[in-house]
Amino acid sequence: MRTVEVAGVGMTAFGRFPDRTLEDLGGEAVEAALADAGLDRTRLDAAYVGNVLGGGQVGPRVLERVGITGLPIVNVEAACASGSVAFRQAVRAVASGLEDLALVVGVEQVSGHGVLSPLEADRESVLGLTFPAVYAMVARRELEQNGTTLTELAEVAVRNRAAGTGNPRATLAKATSAEEVLASPMVAEPLTRLQCGAHADGAAAIVVAAPGLLSRDRPTVTVRAAAMVSGTSLRRQVDITEGDPTRRAAALAYAEAGLGPADIDVAEVYDPFTIGEIVSVRALGLDRGRTAINPGGGLLGRGHAVGATGVAQLAELTWQLRGEAGARQAGAPTTGLAQTVGGGPRGLDAIAAVVHVLSVKEDQ
To answer: Which residues form the Thiolase N-terminal domain (predicted)?
Structure first.
């Protein structure tokens, strides 16, 4: 397997844009990624497109808008991990030599969609076990079992919303205090409204390349690991505060990269709710004193564009590793990690958990 480089990244603003279409959002991100890579679109070998709510054929619809047709276009759906899985598929294809230049797109238009509507096939959902309720159950167990306090939950939102205010693409971000977070309306006890990430419209895109094909005058970011696991049955004894799918994916990613949690300088961690970050950081083995967590604002600060979220995380990591993140730059990181979980049908703890590790090329 050969090295894979992140040759170009692009992202739209994340927010509520009811007058924009999927094709418009996705096209903007693609054009930005191609320009960042210095790549003519005719050189692409394939494209992988993550989306959840678009209703099918999203990849060809988005790419036709920017004149990319004829090549293999793979549509990927894995709930909130859709963009992350699309990136993994592209990385594996390039690493194997099957393709040399691949485009990854994550795109979502949530305006007008009831994204938390239960599925009729999931009786638990119909009875009220929506995602806020699931994460609230985890939060209750965390408070009672592990001694985490309500203030510590609220501080996750405070940190990430503050970070989002320094991210020009996070149009929904607002600075808040812990008191404001705890006083906001209750959604699912103990999670208040400001502890829940806002769903957003947006898109992100990445060009991945075989080594040396696209050279720019800047640090080269490489993919050290691209690991994924699917969920397992909840019909067993399980500690819901462990984040088992993430823990398993992280073990694979660290082994593939030849690194450990102490080697990670910056991480984009899945935080659709405050408790999500706490569980994910623990499952990844990260130390907040060592690793900068969600400097781009995370889902709580940037917004959660579902199918675009995983690609947005990887774009942010790339900017951080290149030293191009501006006011939100987290020092001079050399290794970063992105983690996403796709929520699943009832009876499974996830659809997919995905962990990627990126590094600045060692000779730079």
So the answer is: 6-208
